[in-house]
Amino acid sequence: MSFNLRLIPLLPFLGAAILILFGRKWKRDTVLVVAAGAIACSAIVVFDAVFTALPAAGAGGLTDVVGTWFAAGPLKIDLAFRLDGLSSVLCLIITFIGFLIHIYSSGYMEHDPDFPRFFAYLNLFCGSMLVLVLGDNLPVMFIGWEGVGLCSYLLIGFWYQTTANADAGKKAFITNRIGDFGFLIGMFLLFQYTGTLNFQEITAAAAPGGALMQPLWLGQPIAFWAALFLFIGATGKSAQIPLYVWLPDAMAGPTPVSALIHAATMVTAGVYMVTRLHALYLLSPAVMAIVAIIGALTALFAAIIGFAQNDFKKVLAYSTVSQLGFMFAAVGTGNWDAGIFHLFTHAFFKAGLFLCAGSVMHAMSGSGDITIMGGLRKKIPWTHGVFVVCWLAICGVPFFSGFFSKDSIVSGAFGTEVFGEQLAWVGKLVGVILLLAATGTAFYMSRLYFLVFSGKETRAPHDVRHHIHESPGSMVGPLVVLAIGAALGGFIGIPGGMFDNPQWNWLAEHLAPVVGPEMEVAKSIEFGFMSVSTVLALVGIGVAYVFYGGGYREPARKFAAAMPGFVRLVQDKFRIDELYAFLIIRPLRKLAQVVFLVVDRILIDKVLVEGVGAVVDVFGRIVRGFQVGDGQRYMAVFAIGVAAMVYFATRPTMPSNLAVNVNGTAVDVDARRSGNTSERPQEYSFDFNDDGRPEVTGSEPSAHHDYGKPGTYTIRVDVRDPRWGTHSSVKREVHVPEGVR
Amino acid sequence: MSAGGASIGDQIVFWILAAFITFFAIFTMTRRNPVTAVMSLVATFFGLAGLYATLSAHFLAVLQVLVYAGAIMVLFIFVVMILNREEVAPLALRPLRVLGVLAAVYLFVKFIDVVSFDLPSTVPAPASDTFGTVAAVGEMLFREFLYPFEAISVLLLVSIVGGVVISRSHQKEVSAERAAEHRKQVQEMARHDYPEAAGPADEAHGHGGGH
Amino acid sequence: MPTSYYLVLSFALFLIGTSGVLLRRNALIVLMGIELQLNGGNLALLAFSRQLGDQKGQVLAFLIIALAAAEAAVGLAILVGLFRGRQTINLDEITLMKR
After folding, report:
1. CA end-to-end span of chain B, whole Å?
2. Is B97's Cβ below 8 Å from some Cβ in A?
3. B99 and A640 in contact by Cβ < 8 A?
4. Are A148 and A128 in contact (CB under 8 A)?
C-alpha cells in the first residue's frame, strides 16, 4: 500500500538544510524549534503510518517509490521506501528518542557557540538513519549507512578545534569504512548471483535450493560469503570485534551525540541489517554461528574492559559494545524477535544512562572522572533516580525492560534449533558466554553506580564539589521519559511461551510478517533462565557492592594489589588499539612512504613528467635530422625512398592465406589474389613439401599434387615477377586426414 | 644480352666508346685533384660525343664538343684555377649517403631487369639521311620549338646577369655605390650652378650600382 | 646497337654522377657530378629519339645542353662568391646547420 513515507526522512533533511543556511543568524530558540519541530513532525508521520495505515496494509507494509534512482544495464535501483513491522519499530525509536535528545541538547549545548551547527547535524543524522531504516533495497540502505557514518564523523569531531576530537572522528569514519568495504562486497555478490538488490526479492530468492546455495569459494555457498561480508560491514557500524575500536574514542563528542548515535540508533544499524536479510542468513548456519559467537565474545570482552574504566562515558561506551554483542548473539541464533526487542529496550535505558552521564558531567563542571565522584545521590536526585531505573534495567533485574529482553536472548540461544545437528553446541556455548557477560554487566554497572552515587563524600576537589547542581528542566525532562520507557518497555515483548499467551508478545506479533513466527522455546527453559539470570544479576551487584559500596573499599584495593599487571591490561583495554597500530597502521604508513618515494617521486615526476619531455626531445632530434639543409642528404633520402617505392610497388601480390582444397590425399592450391584481374604474367613455383625442390613450376597460379599418404605438410609457393625481378612467397600448413578415399 | 641485328663494327665501336665513357666517368668522380677531374670529364664528354654520332645525332655530337667540352668545361677550369685546393679526404662515406648510393645501385639492377625484359633487342631501323642533321634539327627548333628556344635564350641571359651579380665582390659593390652617389652629387651641383646647361634628366645614370 | 644497351649505359652514367654528388665533399666535384647526371639523361633521350625516329628528342637534348650551361654558370658563380666568404669549398665546412 502506498503512503507518503518520503516525508519521514525528508523533514529532518529540510531542517538540516535550513539550519545550515540560516541557522547562524537565528536565536537559540528558533533553531531549537526548527530542529526539534522537524523531528516531531517526522515522528507524527511515523505514528500515523504505524498506528493507522500499517494495520490496514497488506503483508508488505507501506511502500513509497519516489522514482528510479538509476538504471544501468541489468541493474535498476529505485529510490524506494518500505515501512513494515521491522522498520516501524526502528522508526519509532529514531524519531521518539531523537526528539527527546533534541530537547535535552537545547539545555546541554546552551552555552556552545556552535549551537545551530549541532542541531543541523543532528537533523541530518536523523534523516540519514531514517533513510537507512526505510530503504527498500540495499543501495538506499547504503545511502543511509554512509550518511550516518558521515554524521557520526561530524558530530564526534564537533569540537574539532581540539585535535584529539578530530582524530576520534577520523578513527570512527575510517574504521567504519573498512566495514563498508565488506558491505559492498556483500552487495556485489548478492547482485551478481540473484540479479537484484531489493529486500523482498532477495528474500524470495533465498530459497534452500536456489541460486544462492551454489558453492562459490572454498566449498562454501554464495549465501555464506554474501552474508559474511555483509556481517563484516555490520561489525564496523555496530562496533563488534574486530572493528569496535572507534566507539570508546567516540566519547570525545558531546554527550547527546553519544546518547543518540552511539547508543540508540546508528550502532544498531548492523543488527537491523542482519534482521532485514534474515532469509539470507538462515541459508547459512555457519555464518549465523560466526555472528552469534562474535556477538557473544564481544559482549564478554567489552564487559571485562568495562570493569576497570575510570571515565563515566567510557564505561557506558564499552557497555554499548557489550550490549550490541547481545543483540548480535540473538540474531545469530535466529532469534530475530529477541534481537530487535533488546535493541528497543537498550535504546531507552542506554540513552537514559548517557543522558545521566551528561547530567553528572554537567554537575561535575565537565569532568567524567568517576574516581573523583561519589555521594552524588543526594545532590542530583532526579539524575540519580533515572540512573537507578536504567541501571536496574541493564542489569536485568526482574520486570524492568532489560530483564525481559536479555532473558529472551539467553533462552533463545540455549533453545535454538537453527544450527542443525553439527553446530548445535554453538547455541549452548553462546548461551554460557552471554550469562557470563550478563554477570559482568551487572558488576561494572553497579560499580559505576556505587562509585558515582553512593557514599557520603564526593572525592572531588573543593571548587568542583561546591558547584554540583541538578540539571535544568530541559535536560531532566527527557531523562524522566526515558526512565519510564526503560522501566516499562519490557512489557511489549513478553515471550509468548511464558504464559502460553502469544498475543501478549506484541512485538513478536508486530514483527511476524517480516521475520516469521516467534521462536518456540520451552517454558521450562524460559523460566529456568529467568531464575538463573536473576541470580547472576544479583551476584554481580553484590560483588560490586562488596568492592565499591559507598566508595573504594578494601576488597577492591586488595584485588588491584594482587594482580596489578592484569588490572593494568584491562585498564588499557587489552591494548587492542596498540595492537592494531602495530599490525596495521605502521605497515600502512611504511607503505605510504614507499609509495610516495617510488610512485610519486620516481614514477610520476621522473618517468611521466620528465619522461614525456625526453621522448618529445628524442623524436624531435630524429625528425630534425631530416631537414638539415644538406642537399646531398636530401638526395640520398630521395634515392632510398624511390628504391623502396619501386620495391614495394613491383612485388607480386599473393594472398596471405593460400586457398587449399583437400581431396582425398591430393591437394589443389590456388595462389590467386581475389579480385585482381589485371596481373602481369608471373612465374609460380609450388613446393609441396617445403624441401627446396619445387614440384610444379610455371605461369599458372594454381597447381595440383597428390601426396599419396595422409599427414601434415607444409606447402610453399614462390612467385617471381620476371620483368622486375622481385619475389614473394607464402607458406601454409595443410593436413591430409586419413581414411578418406 | 644479344645484340640482335647490329653489325660487328657497330658493336665494337659501341663497346669501346662505352668503356671509355664509363672509365673516365668513374675516374672523374674519384679524383682528389680538381684539375684532373675536370680534364677526365672533358674526355668523358668527347666519348659521349662519339656515342651521339653513332646514334645519328650529328648536330648534337658537335654541340656536345663545342658547348659542353668547349665552353662549360673551360668555365670549370677557370673556377678551378681560382679555387684550387686539394682535398684531404675526398670521399665522405657517411652511412646515410652510402645507403643512398646502394639504393641507386638497386634501382640500376632493377632497371637492367626491366630493360632486358621489355625493350626488344632488335636494332632500330636505319635512319634517313636527314635525321639528326643541323638543318633538320634547326628547322624543328624554329618551328615547333620556337617558344622553348626563345625561352632558353632568356634563361641564358638571366644566368649571365645572375652570375655577374652573385660573383660581385662586396668591396666592389660598396665602391660602386659610392661612385654612383658621388656622380649624382656632382650632377646636382652642376645643375645648381648652371641650371640652363642641365641636360635631360640623367638620374637613371647612377642606378646601376643601386643594389 | 639495341636501344637497351644505350639505356643501361645512360643509367650507369647517371649512377656514377649520383654517387659523386652524394659522396664528395668538394663542391666543384659535386657540380661535375651533376653534369654527368645531365649527360646520362641526354644519352637516354637520344637513344629513344633514334629508336622512335623522332627528332624531338634531339631538340630536347639541345635545350638541355643549353640549360646545363646556364646552370653551370650560375652554380660556379655561387661557388666563387661562397669561396670569397668562407675561404673553402669543402661542403662540410661550409654548412651552417648543426651536425
Report:
1. 60
2. yes
3. yes
4. yes
Cα separation, A545 vs A90, in Å, equals 36
Report residue A72: phi and psi, to 5°.
-135, 100
Grid cell locating A733: 600448413
| Sign of the CA dihedral with A464 first, then A470, A471, and A476 last | positive
- Rounded distance between C-alpha atoms, residue B45 and residue C7, angstroms: 17
ipTM for the complex shown: 0.90
Pairing of strands A711-721, A75-83: unpaired
Q: What are the tens digits of pLDDT across the range A679-720?
A: 667 777 787 777 777 777 777 777 777 777 777 777 888 888
Report the gap between the CA of B151 and the closest CA in chain C (Å). 10
pLDDT tens string, chain C, 99 residues long: the values are 788 889 999 999 999 999 999 988 888 899 999 999 999 999 999 999 998 888 899 999 999 999 999 999 999 998 888 887 777 777 777 776 655
Residue with cell 661612385: B179
Contact, C43 vs C9, CB < 8 A? yes
Chain A contact present for B26, CB below 8 A: no
d(CA A23, CA A118): 10
pTM score, whole prediction = 0.64
Edge-to-edge order in the sheet of strand A683-687: A696-698, A683-687, A711-721, A726-736
With H, G, I as helix, E, B as strand and everything else as coil, classify residue A691: coil
Residue that is written with C-alpha cell 573499599 in the block: A553
Residue A629 identity: G
Q: Which long-range contacts (CB under 8 A, 24 or more apart) does A579-587 make?
A: A580/A245
Q: What is the mean pLDDT of residues B52-81?
A: 92
CB A329 within 8 A of CB A299: yes
φ/ψ (deg, to 5) at A653: -90, 135
